């Protein structure tokens, strides 16, 4: 994949800040590539980047429009199509990580062809995967798991990878979702893999390696989320993790998108993930907790982290406020 910078990050008509988490991830981890944001009427997300129209972005040198919205179902609306067609006509490429393919939208495919531009569908694998075999392989692997969706698994994984590299530890971030792929340039969006091959895709993504090498695997979904637990389980078995880091957002009243389902406890989430991970790695252990305290003031966040440490006997950090050094300190 070669998505040419600078980028215009397309937020469309995002319903809330979480809906634009793809764009936020790219803006945070690759700010040097981001020229501005494009928002349609009704957009409720804001990255703090300069607002641009498609034409303004093209005039200022943007080379690609990156669709930064992860809406439910991953659909491309007519309003989006109008804007993205305009980007292609203005001489820019378009990249997206949606379930719906850019290349399957006739107007966009035709616009790309007539302008000699490219459509990047980064969510859709371009290779075949084998079914998992569960064989033990050398190297070390860490997987982030969550109480729910959108609780910080990708951010935590990228922060852990950066901290390991800062310490000159041999490590790789393994992207398993569209935002991670857009950030690091490679990976497998496992929610677009046929169910029988999810674990096999995770095995392919985290191959045998040197004994001291760490693969930091971006987690997806939650074992407790009825919509996405299958992807979470496939990653858990296929990545064969030695270490788990639990990610949590403590202010939610129910599972994201499922108002009739409450959040599991941290202890139950740890127990369930470890139990199921032992199928492929009996020695797996949870090493710490990464808590997204963005919705809490500093005092409440400190108290929550302290109480979590006392209750679980594990280091608990907010990767944004505190960094992840204390989690790396306890890796086996």
Please describe the structure with a list of short key phrases separated by commas or semicolons.
332 residues; alpha/beta; Rossmann fold; 16% strand
Summarize the topology:
Layout: E1 7-12, H1 21-29, E2 34-39, H2 54-59, E3 64-67, H3 78-89, E4 93-96, H4 106-115, E5 119-121, E6 140-146, H5 153-166, E7 171-174, H6 178-184, H7 198-205, E8 214-217, H8 229-238, E9 243-248, H9 266-277, E10 285-291, H10 298-312, E11 316-317, H11 325-329
Parallel strand pairs: 1-2, 1-3, 3-4, 4-5, 6-8, 6-9, 7-8, 9-10, 10-11
Helix pairs in contact: 1-6, 3-4, 7-8
Written overview of the protein:
The chain is an alpha/beta fold and 332 residues long. 33% of the residues lie in helices and 16% in strands. It folds into two domains: 115 residues, NAD(P)-binding Rossmann-like Domain (Rossmann fold); 190 residues, P-loop containing nucleotide triphosphate hydrolases (Rossmann fold, 3-Layer(aba) Sandwich), CATH 3.40.50.300. It contains eleven helices and eleven strands. The model has no long low-confidence stretch (mean pLDDT 95). InterPro entries: DgcN-like, DgcN-like_C, DgcN-like_N, P-loop_NTPase. Pfam families: DUF1611, DUF1611_N.
């Amino acid at each position: 994949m070669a998505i040419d910078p600078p980028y215009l990050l397309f937020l469309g008509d995002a319903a809330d800040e979480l809906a634009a988490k793809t764009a936020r991830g790219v803006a945070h981890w690759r700010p040097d590539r981001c020229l501005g944001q494009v928002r349609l009427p009704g957009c409720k997300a804001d990255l703090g980047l300069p607002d641009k129209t498609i034409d303004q972005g093209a005039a200022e040198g943007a080379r690609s429009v990156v669709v930064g919205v992860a809406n439910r179902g991953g659909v491309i609306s007519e309003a989006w199509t109008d804007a993205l067609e305009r980007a292609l006509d203005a001489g820019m490429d378009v990249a997206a990580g949606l379930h719906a393919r850019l290349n399957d939208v006739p107007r966009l495919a035709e616009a790309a062809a007539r302008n000699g531009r490219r459509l990047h569908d980064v969510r859709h694998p371009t290779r075949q995967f084998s079914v998992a075999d569960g064989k033990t392989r050398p190297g070390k692997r860490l997987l982030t798991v969550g109480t729910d969706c959108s609780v910080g698994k990708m951010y935590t994984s990228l922060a852990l990878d950066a901290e390991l590299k800062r310490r000159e530890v041999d490590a790789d971030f393994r992207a398993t979702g569209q935002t991670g792929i857009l950030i690091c340039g490679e990976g497998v969006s496992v929610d677009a893999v046929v169910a029988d091959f999810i674990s096999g895709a995770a095995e392919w993504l985290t191959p045998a390696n040197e004994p001291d090498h760490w693969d930091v695997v971006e987690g997806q979904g939650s074992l407790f989320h009825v919509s996405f637990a299958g992807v979470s389980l496939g990653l858990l078995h296929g990545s064969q993790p030695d270490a788990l880091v639990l990610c949590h957002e403590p202010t939610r009243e129910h599972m994201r998108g499922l108002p009739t389902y409450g959040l599991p406890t941290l202890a139950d989430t740890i127990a369930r993930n470890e139990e199921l991970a032992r199928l492929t790695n009996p020695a797996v252990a949870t090493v710490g907790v990464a808590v997204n305290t963005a919705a809490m003031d500093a005092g409440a966040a400190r108290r929550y982290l302290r109480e979590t440490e006392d209750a679980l006997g594990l280091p608990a950090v907010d990767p944004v406020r505190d960094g992840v050094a204390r989690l790396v300190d306890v890796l086996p």
